[in-house]
Amino acid sequence: MDLLIKTIQNYIPLSSTDEEIIRKLFRERKLKKGEHLLEAGNVCRNIIFIEKGLVRYYNNKDGEEQTGYFNKEGEFVCDYPSFLPQQPSLTNIQALEETTVYTISHANMQLFYQQVEHGERFGRLAIEYVFVNVINQITSLYNDPAELRYQQFLSRFQDIGQRIPQYYIASYIGIKPPSLSRIRKRMVE
């Protein structure tokens, strides 16, 4: 849980009392490769912190999976459009490898905001970070050519690119796997 505490401290200062509150509110969970943290149609009931491992967000569109994002160690995972209003999700979140996470329920997150001295500030800063990333990703999908989106993927996920199957990367940047192969070949040449 030390990585979780350290990550929260990147946003807000924590007293020893705050750290004890956090240790009580979060629960450890282990996932096998391929296991889902969330399946479309279910309500996202937790915010999740990845201690070890890798996950992907994806949706099913016309029978095809469309990868929307990846999260790795030291990052928070949540389908906020489901979590915040507590309504069914359109998104799936799946472990791409054996993964250890810490989860905090919606009710416990409200306690976090109330009991941790700068808890509400943490929530605001964290959601601002998510918002900016989502807007940048949407803008890129509409405006940037596939080769630039792939270069942005390599830049953003340089430390995990080798851990992600190529067909998920192709899906993430909005192209088919053969197109990604051609882009990669051009970049090598």
Q: What is the succession of H and E elements?
A: HHEEEEEEHEEHHHHH
CATH architecture grouping of the domain at 2-117: Sandwich
Question: Numbering strands along the chain, what is their spatial order in the largest sheet?
Answer: 1-8-3-6
Number of helices: 8
Rg over C-alpha atoms, rounded to the nearest angstrom: 18 Å
| Low-pLDDT runs | none
Shape: elongated
Span between termini: 44 Å
Query: Major beta sheet, specifics?
Result: 4 strands, antiparallel
For CATH, the homologous superfamily of the domain at 2-117 is named as: Jelly Rolls
What features would you describe in this structure?
It is built from 8 helices and 8 strands; from the N terminus they run ααββββββαββααααα. The protein has a 4-stranded antiparallel sheet. Strands 2-7-4-5 form a 4-stranded antiparallel sheet. α2 (16-25) packs antiparallel against α4 (106-115) and α4 (106-115) packs across α5. A hairpin with a 2-residue loop joins β4 (54-61) and β5 (64-72). The chain is of the alpha+beta class and 189 residues long. It has a domain at 2-117: Jelly Rolls, CATH 2.60.120. The longest helix is centred in the C-terminal third of the chain and has 25 residues, at 119-143. The mean pLDDT is 92. It has helices spanning 2-9, 16-25, 80-83, 106-115, 119-143, 146-156, 166-173, 177-188; strands at residues 27-31, 36-38, 46-52, 54-61, 64-72, 76-77, 92-95, 99-105.
